[in-house]
Amino acid sequence: MTRIMIPTLSFAILMSLAFVGVAHGQGSIDGIGPVGEIEKVQDGFQFTEGPASDGEGTLYFTDIPAETIFQLSADGKISPLTTTSGHANGLMFDGEKHLIACQMDGQVVRIDRKTKDVEVLAGQYEGKRFNAPNDLVIDRQGGVYFTDPLFRAPEPLPQGTQGFYYIAPDKSVTQLDKDLPAPNGIALSPDEKTLYVIPSMSAEMLAYDVKEPGKIENRRVFCRLKQKQADGNSGGDGMTIDTKGNLYITAATGVQVFDPSGKMLGNIAFPQQPANVTFGGPDRKTLYVTARTGLYRCAMEAAGHVYPGVVK
User: Fold this and answer.
1) Looking at per-residue confidence, does 26 or 17 come out higher?
2) For 227-259, what is each residue's pLDDT tens digit?
3) H or E element: which one contains 12?
4) Rounded CA separation 63/69 (Å)
5) How far apart are CA 248 and CA 241, in angstroms?
6) Burial class (CB in 10 A: 0-12, 13-18, 19+), 144
7) Would the pTM count as exceeding 0.70?
8) DSSP-derived 3-state class of residue 20
9) CA 168 to CA 125: how far, in whole Å?
10) Contact yes or no for 247/239 (Cβ under 8 A)
């Protein structure tokens, strides 16, 4: 055994290192968190995504290559809900507590957790299948905004462009914007007056004004992500939002947190690069992160926003 001699560290340095370790190499963000250490719930998956809380103590998430939607119960047990997910990515619950899933195989569906019945909400636009629906958010009317980038899509792209859409409660579909650099995460502000779209192939995150459900205007740059390298231009992936309207965007550095004005508040680093993020737990103060082959969580000061059209 090779022994490595480590110099004695001062008490101040040790305390500094302990504080930095709170967020796996980053400090806690004032008023945000995390509170305590990052916890690995389980590793060994292929590629985790789409965390969503049912508001009753169970967290759902996807393993895209395995075509599996998993459920993490309140007692810590992980089991599959389905192993034929259609390469499901983003998940969210509707007002009836059915699971809405973006299937990268080309459609957005509603899943009845009890019967496992699957209902297609939308599978095409103007007679052509979607590229590969990625992530979604549900408004108070029950309409679904979802992104449709190129990941896992057939070539050439069935839609011929990368954009995002709105499925109205009557299942009619509207294309809201197109020719974007891999639109990925998507969310509404707590008052549902602003729609955020997170491109994966640009450091500039986008925002739109919502005139009315399914109608937007005034596309603009909301913020620019901090890059891992000085010459980088990588974008975000998934996102979630808290009760104060702060955005939590997964990126190469971790989960980057921005206030509603676009000011960066800090970064929460994880052992693996995060793909998506949501709040869960009984008080919505547990941040769950899907990161490559693992599922992680940490206690937070901030609480996650609950959309009126999702979980009551």
Assistant:
1) 26
2) 987 767 799 999 999 999 999 999 999 999 999
3) helix 11-20
4) 6
5) 6
6) buried
7) yes
8) helix
9) 13
10) yes
pLDDT at residue 9, as a whole number: 31
* Tokens matching residue 63: 């393993």
3-class SS at 69?
Answer: strand
pLDDT attached to residue 311:
62
Q: How far apart are CA 82 and CA 109, in angstroms?
A: 13
Cβ atoms of residues 110 and 94 within 8 Å: yes
152: left (phi over 0), alpha (psi -120 to 50) or beta: left
Question: Both tokens of residue 13?
Answer: 């340095």
Phi/psi zone of residue 218: left (φ > 0), alpha (ψ -120 to 50 degrees), beta? Answer: left
In the block, tokens 């305590």 appear at: 36
What is the rounded distance in angstroms from the CA atom of residue 128 to the CA atom of residue 149?
15
Tally the residues of the chain. Answer: 312
Distance CA 270, CA 290 (A): 10
Residues in CB range of 42: below 8 A, 6 or more apart: 78, 294, 295
- Give the tens place of pLDDT for each residue, 147-199: 999 999 999 999 999 999 999 999 999 999 999 999 999 999 999 999 999 99
Q: Does residue 18 register a pLDDT over 70?
A: no
- Strand, coil or helix: what is 157? coil
C-alpha distance across the termini of the chain, in Å? 58
Q: 165: helix, coil or strand?
A: strand
